[in-house]
Amino acid sequence: MLGVIGVGAIGAAIVAGLSEGCDAPAILLSPRNAKTVAELDATYPNVRVADSNQALVDQSDVVLLCVRPVDARRVMSDLTFRDQSLISVLAGVPIKALRELAPPVRDIVRAIPLPAVSARRGITPLYPATEPARSLFNRLGRVIEVADETVFDRYSAATATLAAHFLYMHQISNWLAAHGIAHTQAQHYVAAMFAELASSLKGRDPDFQELMHEHATPGGINELFCQVMGEEGAWKTVDAGLDRVWQALMDRQNGG
Ligand SMILES: NC(=O)C1=CN([C@@H]2O[C@H](COP(=O)(O)OP(=O)(O)OC[C@H]3O[C@@H](n4cnc5c(N)ncnc54)[C@H](OP(=O)(O)O)[C@@H]3O)[C@@H](O)[C@H]2O)C=CC1
């Protein structure tokens, strides 16, 4: 039995992805977030809702922890574990801290799922990449087996750039809207442009420099835009943002 504590955005996405297709694993959900939990329970025959978090822990061989990092200590300190498996998706909470939160559990794996797991198209770094986490996340797409926890946290830092991608698109559509194109039309246009770009990445070995050149006619407007972004410091800002995220993750690990 897989028990999921914290059925918010990523917890629900994982449950949905695992529950699609044949041989779906039996899943028990924590009762909080009643609306989402009831929807998952009604949609998937392999899903049930536990009476409490402790009942979930008692009945589960594998516990998947999907609460916000700031809530972890409060949630876990109420619970008594036995020697079962624990998978944590909590960004920036290291194995050492998880051991302290869930004694006597020894088998602890960290995972970095992305929302695409709901459609079983995820790519999930695992540390350490042991069973049963490997099988669970392989069912949700692909797994990256990471051998070192610091490297694992680098992957975690990179996921912090996702929301900014939408802000970038927002900025472009706002510029169009400020210059006479209806806001909705501008958003549809930018969404279609980037959806096409994203789908062109599938099924090929990505080389981003090469792709940039494919899209930038020499002397053309894409080349000009890249040049101005560089001159204005945009690419250095990406490095600065990632460095700050990395520092925040490290501070979280050190209890800061
Ligand atoms: N969202 C994402 O794409 C990704 C998230 N993560 C990690 O996943 C974790 C969850 O993120 P996300 O899903 O976005 O956050 P959400 O806030 O959407 O989900 C967290 C859920 O935990 C619930 N919760 C809080 N306290 C308890 C409790 N005592 N018992 C059971 N459930 C509880 C919350 O309920 P309530 O709202 O009522 O407090 C909420 O539904 C984070 O640690 C994050 O780092 C990792 C990879 C990707």
Describe this structure in words.
- The mean pLDDT is 96.
- The protein is of the alpha/beta class and 256 residues long.
- Helix content is 51%, strand content 13%.
- 27% of the residues are buried.
- It has helices spanning 9-19, 34-43, 53-59, 72-77, 95-101, 133-138, 149-158, 162-178, 183-199, 208-215, 221-231, 234-253, and strands at 2-5, 27-29, 47-49, 62-65, 85-88, 107-111, 122-127, 141-145.
- It is globular and about 65 Å long.
- The protein has an 8-stranded mixed sheet, with helices on both faces.
- The longest helix has 20 residues, at 234-253.
- The protein has 2 domains: 2-147, NAD(P)-binding Rossmann-like Domain (Rossmann fold), CATH 3.40.50; 161-252, ProC C-terminal domain-like fold (Orthogonal Bundle).
- The chain contains 12 helices and 8 strands.
- β7 (122-127), α6 (133-138) and β8 form a beta-alpha-beta unit.
- NADPH dihydro-nicotinamide-adenine-dinucleotide phosphate binds at residues 5-11, 30, 32-33, 53, 66-69, 71, 75, 89-91, 112-113, 115.
At a glance:
This protein is α/β, with parallel strands linked by helices.
